[in-house]
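Entry 14. Ran structure prediction on the chain below.
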Amino acid sequence: MNSPGNTRDIQRYIALDIHKEYVMLGAMKATQEWVIRPRRVEMSHFRAWAANNLCTGDAVVIETTTNVWDIYDIVAPLVTRTVVAHARAVRQIAEARVKTDTEDIKRLLRLLIADIVPEVWVPPAHVRELRGMIAYRNRMVKTGAMIRNRLHSLLHRHNLPLAEGGLTDQKWWEAQALNTLERLQVRQELALLEKVEQNKAELDLELQKMSVGETWGRQATRILQLPGLGVVVTMTILGAIGDIRRFEDAKHLVGYAGLGAGVHDSGKEHKDKGITKSGRKELRWALVEAAWRAIRMSELWKQRYEELKERKGPCKAIVAIARKLLVAIWHVLSKEETDCNASEEDLAWKMLLWSWSLGDEARLGLTPKQFAKYSLLRLGVQSDVTSFMRGKVLRRIAPTGEVLARAAELGIPT
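Output, structure tokens:
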């Protein structure tokens, strides 16, 4: 949102209701007199309309929808104040039996004039880009799952066991007694699946580069030190959070993720409910995924899970672990500190695991051992850990001097 300014500077209050092919708009004075009666502007003409009609002294409210940020970027530089309204919260505040485009404009304008619009945070361009990439990768994953489900359905139809080479074993499929249509289906499904996996691998490489880049690198390193966090999950969390400074404490971040407990407290009845699920669903997914991995990787987190499981059961216990992980994420991001439950050897091992998961290009020209030490330096770990035991195996990372010299040679900031 651009600067609210002084409300006395606002001359017109304008509401925009975005549709696929047009924008419904209207404007009022503070006295709720129409300045521009509700009208439609075709989406292809909206940029020109905005340039000719919007000016300093206008306050604009836009309801969230798929292409809200494109419209926001057009409007915000032209006016004094731009507010992006939370669509669901607006419906809860202004629920009405009569719903038309004109009535929607009236409700938005009244909320704007009264200054009670439930606002959403306006993410900057780099956050939008990351969120878009995560959403696109999720679509690739879902597409691959649908293809595999169709192939499994074909197996079940003919009561066939899964091939030793897996679902994508083309020679095995060719040896089965399938009709012409089924053979065509298998050939096309396998070709589609191969292409989807290639696309996903390309996206994963881009996320790896972003996790070590200038924009997200330091934040990603902070999160990746925690057990259970990999590159995809970390970048999903960073995209959902955006700027950690907008959460004054861990409790607000937990609420944003929808992982806080709901409560029914009315009269003599007090009842705890499940989590609110009111926040970003991809953030909840990422944290639950990280929680399952954390209890497998860390004895400390496993012990916490086992204690919770005895009282709450496995599902509620893993959600509680996800919530605790999110609290830890708030601390390491907002305070720029290391994991208080991890030793320097634990951190070195986590950085080494991360380096092994990256491609050569994403490691900035460093070897895995050099990159692990480079990541420790970015975390602020000053002691020169070069070897440690992990799983009865001696693990090694590069010494500090070697990494600093190599980083200087490559022009990598430390």
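The chain has a mean pLDDT of 91. Will compare against last week's run tomorrow.
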